[in-house]
Amino acid sequence: MTVLNNDAFLTRLTRIFEDQKKLNSKKVYLTMKRHSWKSKKQIKTENTKESKKQLQNQDSKEQIKEEDDCKEYPLLLRATCGKTKIITYVNSSDSDKFYTEYSNILKVYMATMKKKERKKEKAKKEMKKIIHKVKATTA
Question: More exposed terminus of the chain, fewer Cβ within 10 Å: N or C?
Fold first, then answer.
């Protein structure tokens, strides 16, 4: 995994999409989530400590929520295609510029995306085939 700045991430992302389009074999996965700079282990220990405190004092829960609302968290963007993984962190101050460039890239390469096949659509098609066969045999 390589952590890149925002511009380098966008250029690498376009390169990944172009390579995927040429090879047409691997899928590109994009992930967006809030980043808190804490490891899973730290979060677990904090949660256990907080749960013990909450049993003692119910007002602490409201204080924790207020503290979390005041913080600004960066956005974590991850793109994976096979073995290549790239990551970037987008701050709230840079988000508008980044989103416009990111959305333009996604619009260009949206045609390569495959629609998700739904089970209901398959079932409807099979039913139509059966009905068509029945009508053909009765006519």
Answer: C
What is each CA distance from 71 to 34, 93, 102, 109, 124, in whole angstroms?
12, 14, 25, 34, 50
The whole domain housing 109 covers 2-35+73-138
Please give the tally of structural domains in the chain: 1
- Residue ranges of the chain with per-residue pLDDT less than 70: 25, 37-44, 46-70, 112-117, 139
Token output for 75: 């956005």
- Per DSSP bridges, beta strands 84-90 and 2-3 are parallel
Please report, for the domain that includes residue 88, its CATH number.
3.30.720.10
Tell me which amino acid residue 139 is.
Answer: A
Helix ranges (H only) for the chain are: 6-23, 40-56, 59-70, 95-108, 119-138
For the entire predicted model, the pTM comes to 0.63
